[in-house]
Amino acid sequence: MLASQTKLLVILVLILTTSLLGCSKQNSTSVEGTGAAQKEKTITISWPRDIGPMNPHVYNPSQLIAQSMIYEPLVTYTEGGKLEPHLAESWTISPDGKEYTFKLRRNVKYSDGTIFNANNVKKNFDAIMINAENHSWLGVFNVLDKTEVIDEYTFKMTLKQPYSPALQDLTVVRPVRFLGDAGFPDDGDTSKSVKQAIGTGPWMLTNYKKDEYAEFTRNPNYWGQKPKVDKIVIKIIPDGETRVLAFEKGELDLIFGEGAISMDAFKQLKASGKYETTLSEPVATRLIAMNTKREALSDIKVREALQYGFNKKAMVDGITGGLEENADNILSKNFPYTNIDATPLDYDVEKAKAYLDDAGWKLPAGKTVREKDGKPLELELIYEKSDQIQKPMAETLQAEWAAIGVKLKITGLELTEQIKRWRGNEFDLNFTSNYGAPYDPHSFIHIVKEKGFGFSDALSNISGKQELDRQINEALLSTDETERKELYSAILKHLQEQSALVPLSYIKKTAVYQKDVTGFAFPANREDHPFNGIDTGK
Questions:
Q1: Model-level pTM?
Q2: Alpha-carbon dihedral of residues 359, 365, 366, 371, nearest 10 degrees?
Q3: In tens digits, what is the pLDDT along the chain, a chain of 538 residues?
């Protein structure tokens, strides 16, 4: 009897143990399944330089792509140049074109949980206007008279005079984006620094190591459609070839941007069939600006000779593999008011030499560099050294201009130093571009007139500059559509004829991404980020 009871007890223990083990296994599977379901989705990209201090109201070294992830505008720029509500639900403009009244979106919170309202909007405008001279390239700040809080969700902006592109100026990535109250320094002057990067945007900066990486996670308080991935990691990789190697190893999910990798690398990655690749529509014109304050370049014959002296089409096709289009117009025709027919200065070495001779730059016997009054015709071209297209273009120009007796020194610089020399008029020739969407054409012609941002100073010795500036003023202030069209046409034709801005190619952004990445699309705004609709199957 006892043996039978003992045997029965053993059987019960075995059954209970098996049952418990089964439950344990089931629970373990359930936990693992939950973990898999909740696995964090991450997209890792590369960028050539550190993202900067993430101050919405200042410029370099803060990077536009990262600023646009955190901070948002009142009005947004969409495909085809259409302006749509964003943090402002709607707006009205007074009949005289001076008063803009914005109805703000309710229930918008900053990433720290605080409320976005008209008081905060005014606080941001006030901070920007403390240093209005820093933002004078953006025309609206030259005519802004005052801002007012009408009620908690109504904000009013009054201009000194009509300015037709005012709303377009509010769509740009900086400086008209909004910082939460807790991010402001005690004195309210954000030009020096901000305490925290607090925005209403879909992303928050949550982990950062200077010159190495920046990690962004979803803003839990975001008012709009939530991003599909949990985290965006930006790895700082200055060298283009190193970026490609990291991508091929699977360390990066996406590389995109302008000049992010060489066109050869882009074509090779596309041809491999292992990855997804895409090209944007033209976003801007790649230009060389000639500094007309330099003695040689003040002469239009020299400027035209330099254009005749290189084979633009061969250079663009060779370096970009035909992925960029040869540009004849300073501004491409897909912007408002820019549909003008320019007469290109086609490649003609003999004409280039003749123009230089006429300008007094002769080639002495036995020498390779032209001279005038004992001075050699030597010029320096500065370019951004991390850009994968500017450098080979600079090298091509160096070789081709040598054939017409011009010695060209090419100097690769960090972007911040290139911009510093550009704005300080410390250059002979410089790679640059127009702003693209949503800025142009109004922002471009504005900085042709406005001093301190490179273009105006570089163009100061072209013929008819004073009359050109007058026309620009009229074009920006005119409320008559027909008059604006006529003025824009006259302005752009004159700039083309003066040959101080050399259009090279129409810039396109490239993107290459892993097969499991979906939903990538280039934003309508040239400088915005593309991360809200992106997803990964990893």
A1: 0.77
A2: -30
A3: 434 443 333 333 333 333 333 333 333 333 333 444 568 999 999 999 999 999 999 998 999 999 999 999 999 998 877 899 999 999 999 988 899 999 999 999 999 999 999 999 999 999 999 999 889 888 899 999 999 999 999 999 999 999 989 999 999 999 999 999 999 999 999 999 999 999 999 999 999 999 999 999 999 999 999 999 999 999 999 998 999 999 999 999 999 998 888 888 999 999 999 999 999 988 899 999 999 999 999 999 999 999 999 999 999 999 988 888 899 999 988 787 898 888 899 999 999 999 999 999 999 999 999 999 999 999 999 999 988 889 999 999 999 999 999 999 999 999 999 999 999 999 999 999 998 888 889 889 988 998 888 999 999 999 999 999 999 999 988 878 899 899 999 999 999 999 999 999 998 899 999 999 999 999 999 999 999 999 998 7
> What is the token pair recorded at 401?
């201009």
Cα of 291 vs its chain's centroid, Å = 24
d(CA 84, CA 488): 25
CATH fold of the domain at 73-183: D-Maltodextrin-Binding Protein; domain 2 (3.40.190)
What is the fold, at CATH topology level, of the domain defined by 284-507? Dipeptide-binding Protein; domain 3 (3.10.105)
How far apart, in whole angstroms, are the C-alpha atoms of residue 29 and residue 27? 5
Q: Which residue has the tokens 């020299």?
A: 302
CA atoms of 360 and 166, how far apart (whole Å):
47
And the tokens for 109? 């919170």
Instruction: Name the fold adopted by 203-280+510-536.
Output: D-Maltodextrin-Binding Protein; domain 2 (3.40.190)
* 203-280+510-536 and 284-507, same CATH topology: no
Q: What is the DSSP letter of 483?
A: H
